From TrEMBL:
<dbReference type="InterPro" id="IPR036249">
    <property type="entry name" value="Thioredoxin-like_sf"/>
</dbReference>
<protein>
    <submittedName>
        <fullName>Thioredoxin</fullName>
    </submittedName>
</protein>
<feature type="domain" description="Thioredoxin">
    <location>
        <begin position="43"/>
        <end position="137"/>
    </location>
</feature>
<dbReference type="InterPro" id="IPR013766">
    <property type="entry name" value="Thioredoxin_domain"/>
</dbReference>
<dbReference type="Pfam" id="PF00085">
    <property type="entry name" value="Thioredoxin"/>
</dbReference>
Amino acid sequence: METLPAAALVLALIGASTALGLVWRARQGRVRAAGGSEVIRPADVDASVAFGDRATLLQFSTEFCARCPGTRRLLGEAADARPGVTHVDVDLTHRADLATRFNILQTPTTLILDGTGRVRARVGGAPHRSEIARQLDELTVDARPPAPLSPLRSRNVPSR
């Protein structure tokens, strides 16, 4: 092979792999809305803690995942900052059945559940703090009970 065509081929491969890498990186950590009606219960993932009454951050991890400890801290802090929100971490190292059932292709993967356990969003990779906060704000606002009616102020009305 001649030098010029070989160099052009190498540059084209470098360009294509760079473009694919940038696309992949841009998609990591983004929250995608889940349109399904799938409902997950604690027993479905062998969780020993109850899910939150307003929202649950369901994180799927493995023992050898480099980004999972940071994600665990971020999601734990987000859950602790909001009443009714729980963070549950499920280790998939020895649970390929759960990875298959919930279509987990990478770790960490986080499912954001509403108070009923319905999957509202999915995050592949390490999530962005601001996007998790925005999703939780939407869920906790939706789950708030209606504000109590304010009592009527009594007016000085002469008695009859």
